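Notes taken during the Thursday session

The instructor put the following on the board and asked us to keep it in front of us for the whole hour. The protein is Crp/Fnr family transcriptional regulator. We were told not to look anything up and to reason only from what is written here. First, the residues (262 in total):
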Amino acid sequence: MQPQIESIGPSADPLQLRKIPLLSSLTDEQITRVAADMRLRQYARRETVIHKGSPGSALLFLLSGQLQVVDVTEDGRAVGLNLFNAGDFFGEIAVVDGGPRSATVTALNTAVVGTLPRATALWLFSHCPSVAERILAHMAAKIRSESQFRTLLGIQSIFQRVCALLEFYKRTQPGGLEVVENLPTQQDIAIMINTSRETVSRVLADLSQRGIVEKDMRRLIIRHPQELRNLAQQGEPVLRVTRITVRRQAPQPAPPRPTKES
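Then, after some discussion, the predicted structure tokens were revealed:
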């Protein structure tokens, strides 16, 4: 279950910050310094948290809600790249190299974000080996994940692309149940895979009618994981139509009519 930090104020609560995996191993002194320097802000749905190209002056933590990473193609189309859930951190690349933000991040719903100044974040990286190790592991996983997602966007079939997206975001819970938690809206999914909301709706309805998936509040339960996996990898089965050639015989000449005897 994702940690939820509901309190909003000028600074964060050290006890609540320990719910964030990146900060869970800090000493009391370190977590107190981080809490003192971190500032919290609430964002409304669709509000922009960071803009692509803006200065990377802070490391950010999502304390509650859900965010979406969005990039804009050369022809002006918005493409969703990733989702952030409570407990995730982002903005680490700009903090490390001092460059501008590489993508835009917007709120999918009401969200609380903690902002840690770059100087404090760099101090944390250098004074806490476990944090530095997790940052490196996170950046490596991020590169792999974005590579997989861009491969997903290259799939020609929209039906197959939706199935591949569900495969990408599903997680296995204790007991073996596979679930997509905090399922994005159909419009958000459409942005992610560059299609229309109506198309996403039709695909999800089809998967539901087949019993492959089941909607449960804000999550999607994968009832038949192997079938979804096959559709994500192979797409819809194509029926082979055998062409049957029917040879038409040439019409036979009519028999001569009998003549009357004169």
